[in-house]
Description:
15 strands; alpha/beta; 8 helices; single chain; globular; six-stranded mixed β-sheet
Amino acid sequence: MTSRYIAIDWGSTNLRAWLFQHGECQESRKSEAGVTRLNGRSPDAVLAEITQGWRDAATPVIMAGMVGSNAGWKVAPYIPCPARFSDFGRQLTTVAPNVFIIPGLCVQHENNRNVMRGEETQLLGARALQPAPLYIMPGTHCKWVRADNEQVSDFRTVMTGELHHLLLTHSLVGAGLPAQEKSHEAFQAGLAQGLETDAPLAGLFEVRAAHVLGALAREQVSEFLSGLLIGNEVASMVSQWRPDSQQPVTIVAGQALAERYRQALSVLNIHAQVLEGDTAFQAGIRSIVHAVAE
């Protein structure tokens, strides 16, 4: 394994970079130059800027995320599921000397067509750090992933995070609301309703009606809506995936968001362990560097 490498998480709106040497992170940097925010600059120029002072000819750069999409630097083909973890580092796309993009994953079934980019790298790390038969990866587009120690067999995507944002900012549900505040009670109330309902669409307008009629504080609509959407997502996906209650699932996310999903799962008697997303990503990159150095 090379003793020095650069890990890049390059999404649509942001870019994060880490310099590693002898297994330790030496420095990290962030930029808002996601692949949709290059502002006329080339990806090569943005990479040079974010890694200034880090790179030399012998230091590999391993990138994951939307940089490998058709909107990114170069398309890194998807690996179809079932996808072996060992193949992730063997099917890298080269975009410049010693600069590589990790492939995404896809599912193509009649009842499920799905893609992911970036999460596959977190999965590699999660498998090593907190293995589980089911991984939940909350975010704008939450991934539910079934895997074992050898391969990813299937996954689905739920647009919970994006739907929450759209409803609050571009729909009647959030129209005219004041600044939102944190409320454990409002989240719990929404969660209880979301876990029980089979008709989430019918409940969405009721969120507006509740604050119009004074049954829900106007400052707490975001929290209630978050609980409603996460509760319904978790209930429907647990019903579909039917995880073994004797085996913990792994949630890969920041602590605050992971806790919301952990609470929802707990109501359904599903135990969850939490792994920080950046920790999983960095561990995944580390395992792929082995393949690059071979």
